[in-house]
Amino acid sequence: SAVVFPKKIATEQQSLMLVKRLLAVAVSCITYLRGIFPESAYGTRYMDDVCVKILREDKNCPGSTQLVKWMLGCYDALQKKYVRVCLAADYCNNDWLCLQTVTECYHFKFKYTHNGPLLDFSSKDKKSDSSITCADTKKASILLIRKIYVLMQNLSPLPNDVCLTMKLLYYDEVTPPDYQPPGFKEAEYGGMIFNEEPMYLNVGEVPTPFHMLKLKITTEKQRMDNVDKSILKQGESAEPLQVCGVSKDDPEEESQVMDEDPVLDNEVEDKNHVNISEAQ
């Protein structure tokens, strides 16, 4: 069956449904292509002309069932406009630091309009979201999924004993301090540490009149050896993948990356956030 794009995105609810679907497709594609769950944990759908794998609950794969529950918890926070960043991270099962030490991390960032579709997002093209059409959203969505496919297929494999976890970071000014979505608990530790030198990949963004979804990936630098930085260029209007690593020889670059996603001394952490949830 097909993942159908709405003919128009006139309401916040229509936009929310699309963002939820896109998040599900992106997480499913990443986990499928990185070999985190077996084939039986996925169904096949079509998104326009792109064949995608969609994660489903599988009684023979408790991990996929658990991730589906985490996604539902993330949806709850999305609907309430609380969640700012959803971090899905792979960690090695035999690592003594357990969930704190990761080998690859997928950052899904969310922005919302709080006063209807007239509020501007600060995007690269400075385009007012009131002028974002459904065609713009559809084009950006398909491009994002295609970029995920190309990137995931070109990164070096993950370790065999990799496990998945998820954390949610919030807009603290609107999120109740005791809020925890279903499937999550208060995080004991807010940061994530990379054992190896991390590389920071800006994959893409999808705007709607009411939301903005951005995807960024952090992985170990050695895993990028076989990736041609131009491979994600899809047609003349698309931008190639941007690769940003923290260089201690370049303070300006380091500062720029720190402003977006702190990656310093191999650590990924958001020190400004009080309320952080981690998967149970």
Give a written overview of the molecule:
With about 280 residues, the chain is an alpha+beta fold. It has one domain: Cell Cycle, Spindle Assembly Checkpoint Protein, Chain A (2-Layer Sandwich), CATH 3.30.900.10. It has 4 helices and 13 strands. The strands form 2 sheets. Strands 3, 4, 5, 6, 7, 8, 9, 10, 11, 12 and 13 form an 11-stranded mixed β-sheet that branches. A two-stranded antiparallel ribbon has the order 1-2. The longest helix has 22 residues. About 15% of the residues have low confidence.
Secondary structure: elements and pairs:
Elements lengths: L11 H22 L8 E6 L2 E6 L6 H18 L3 E10 L8 E12 L21 H21 L7 E9 L13 E3 L5 E3 L3 E10 L3 E10 L21 E3 L6 H10 L2 E2 L2 E2 L7 E4 L1
Parallel strand pairs: 4-7
Antiparallel strand pairs: 1-2, 3-4, 3-5, 4-9, 5-13, 6-13, 7-12, 8-9, 8-10, 11-12
The count of strands amounts to: 13
Portion in helices = 25-40%
Order of helices and strands: HEEHEEHEEEEEEHEEE
What structural category characterises the helix and strand content?
alpha+beta
CATH topology descriptor: Cell Cycle, Spindle Assembly Checkpoint Protein, Chain A
The CATH class turns out to be: Alpha Beta
How would you name the CATH homologous superfamily? Answer: HORMA domain
GO biological process, one term: oogenesis
Biased composition (Acidic residues): 250-268
Main location: nucleus
Keywords: Chromosome, Differentiation, Meiosis, Nucleus, Oogenesis, Phosphoprotein, Spermatogenesis
